Amino acid sequence: MQGSEGEKIFDSYNLNPQLFVNEVTDSVNTIVNEAFDFFLQETATVLKVEGTDRFEPLKKGVEYIRSMVQSKLDQRQYMWQKYCLSQCFTVPQGFSLPQADKPSLDTSSDQDTELDAQLDSLRSKLAQVVEESTDLNKELQELEMQSSKRKCSAASLNEVIQFYNELGLHEKFSELVTTASELRSSLEKRVTQMCSEIEHERAEKIRKLDDDDKLRLNYHGYGDHSGLSNAKLEDLKQFLDDLKTPNDL
């Protein structure tokens, strides 16, 4: 606008550029505030932290993101306001209010044509402002979506870390490794002991067979000391079966 003269012209057509700019700015700020309030409420509900000690850190995080978005948005709105007031709502050069006390019937047709052209120009600029406002709202929605995704990802990661810490999985895994090592050592000792006992049992059987004359190394007491060469086939089979079958531990 061009000073008070421009304001008079807009007032004569019941137009207020500054009021329009203020209403658009207030509407955008209201949408942003409602969006972040809804985001905070939904996040607290999903994470089940409302009314707990974890709610305050969550609220601070959302407020931090809100301030970042609002700062960028304020810069864009400031530039948009300047553009609207300096370009879109500028009174065309040579435009003046009609003189009511000096009627000029001869030039009324030309004035109407010029006035229509000026109104068309204002309508075109106003449509351009509305289009730019729509683009600005789209960018704001994209920022809100990105912020929501990042916040959800961070919250999910924090939950996994907290769940891991609460379960103490690292300590339990260490205990499991230690227990497995001890069990393996115990099994190795047990196997070694069993092998030793089996060998001992076999040696004991051989000794008992010799003492009880099961193998009959001195066959039937005839004084023949030829040993296995004179043993019966049944005695040899029984001797081998006894060697292969250890006693129960």
Overview of the molecule:
- The chain has 249 residues and is an all-alpha fold.
- Helix content is 76%, strand content 0%.
- It contains 6 helices and no strands.
- Helix 2 packs antiparallel against helix 3, helix 3 packs antiparallel against helix 4 (108-167) and helix 5 (169-211) packs antiparallel against helix 6 (233-244).
- The radius of gyration is 50 Å and the shape is rod-shaped.
- The termini are far apart.
- The relative contact order is 0.07.
- Mean pLDDT is 77; it is low at 214-226.
Keywords:
mainly alpha
Helix-strand blueprint:
Layout: H1 3-12, H2 17-47, H3 55-88, H4 108-167, H5 169-211, H6 233-244
Helix pairs in contact: 2-3, 2-4, 3-4, 5-6
Q: Got a strand count?
A: 0
**Termini separation:** 108 Å
Share of helix among residues?
over 70%
How does the major sheet shape up? none
Count helical runs: 6
Structural class: mainly alpha
Stretches with pLDDT under 50, minimum 5 residues = 214-226
Proportion of residues in β-strands? under 5%
- What is the radius of gyration computed over CA atoms, rounded to a whole number of angstroms? 50 Å
The secondary-structure element order is HHHHHH
**Which oligomeric form is depicted?**
single chain
Mean pLDDT: 77
